[in-house]
Amino acid sequence: GTKIALCLSKSHGLASDTTLRHHKKEHFMIPCLLAAVSTPSSEENNHNISTFLDPDIHPPPLPIRGRTPGNVLMFDGIALETRCHYCSQQNQIMGLCWEHAENVKTEVTDYQVIEDVRRRLLNTSGENNKKVCLGKEATVIALAPYSCLNHYQPVPLVVSATDKTEKWAQLKLWMETFLHNYKTHSFGEALNGPIWSLASDGDSTYCRAKHEICSQSVIQNDSEMGKILSKLSGLNLFTSVNGITWTCDPKHIFKHFSTLLRSKNGVMVCDTNITPVDIILHLSQLPDMTLQKAITLLDPADKQNVPKAVSLIQHLLKLESLPIPSNPADIKKRKAINFFAHFLGCFTLPFIDVNMSLEEQLKSLCKFAHLAVALHRKHGVCSLTGALYIGLTINYQEYYHYYCTFTIN
């Protein structure tokens, strides 16, 4: 809100909140996102699409070879100030979670409405049909193009307060509502291109909802895309009714990799169990690595540090250049670590090595996909956790789908 605007004004010289409000009234229109009062509705979705995707405000992406490129629809949660406030635009009480907001009247017609919300918030009876609570965070949906040099930033289209008790079935319903609204709106798919993918972090509720939406149809072998993808044995060909796939951010995969390597239970590779102690001992033999630095790279308390996760994989890849140890037990461990480092590198390098060609990136991901299946079939969760394995499989499915789509276009 205003505090963020003030911080950006001081740190980056951007317009302050006062300046924005003044210009909004006098010179130009600044679009305002209409927050959902309860479950996001078609009316609210269409209003935000009309406001934010208006070509006078957000110029549509330029076509590539006569076709508009697709978009990714991103879902995530942001911190929220847990309090009620009044929205004069909608004449509604805002700030209640969408899961329970329908249990109480939120349109302000008299003082009794406000008093009723107050009593419901203080109610501790536990009756679900009377329960009302404040949103703990806001679920935000944003749209971003896959191929656009101008206006590349994501555009927010839905914001809804949640108390984090949402179920995948509820989430699926209003995700499908938004997808329908975007497809049929004149400023939606017709102007800004189709939605190709649904993306979120590793939250299990989002993942289940995306899986249910994107497993309703199969690409037919005689279709344009099917003629290419059907030759790739084992590739997941399930999509939504409209050909949408689902994915997650690669940086979350990198964090999963580092968490896996830091696990006290270790990682199984054939008949060898790689533990954090083994990794630290072998990393400390690198010329630019001290024992303390190696320990820091595997610090279990630093789970959200993506650069550190990538650095850990990069250093593990360097072990291959070291002389072979003299101890047979160390040789066995080194070979297992080198193999697993190469395996993780097959997924990581395409995202961080700018010198790799598209062909090299796809081949690397293909190698990774086959190795992931082999490891998971042999060791199950002792090698790759279930959540990590699912995230990996849907990610490389997405990349091959988009490569195929651009090739056809």
Structure description:
The strands form four sheets. The protein has a five-stranded mixed β-sheet. With 409 residues, the chain is an alpha+beta fold. The radius of gyration is 25 Å and the shape is globular. The longest helix has 25 residues, at 328-352. The two termini are 42 Å apart. Helices cover 47% and strands 13% of the residues. The chain contains 15 helices and eleven strands.
Order of helices and strands: HHHEEEHEEHHEHEHEEHEEHHHHHH
| Gyration radius from CA atoms, angstroms | 25 Å
Q: Stretches where pLDDT falls below 50 for ≥5 residues?
A: none
Helix percentage: 40-55%
Q: Give the biggest beta sheet.
A: 5 strands, mixed
Structural class: alpha+beta
What is the averaged pLDDT score? 87
Euclidean distance between termini CA atoms: 42 Å
Strand tally is 11
Supply the number of helical segments.
Answer: 15
| Spatial shape | globular
Strand order of the largest sheet: 5-4-1-6-9
Q: Report the β-strand fraction as a percent range.
A: 5-15%
Q: What is the secondary structure topology, with strand pairs?
A:
Elements: H1 2-12, H2 17-26, H3 42-52, E1 71-79, E2 85-87, E3 92-94, H4 111-122, E4 137-145, E5 155-162, H5 168-184, H6 189-192, E6 195-200, H7 204-213, E7 217-218, H8 224-229, E8 238-239, E9 245-248, H9 250-262, E10 267-269, E11 272-274, H10 276-283, H11 291-297, H12 306-318, H13 328-352, H14 358-379, H15 386-408
Parallel strand pairs: 1-6, 6-9
Antiparallel strand pairs: 1-4, 2-3, 4-5, 7-8, 10-11
Helix pairs in contact: 3-5, 5-7, 9-12, 9-15, 12-13, 13-14, 14-15
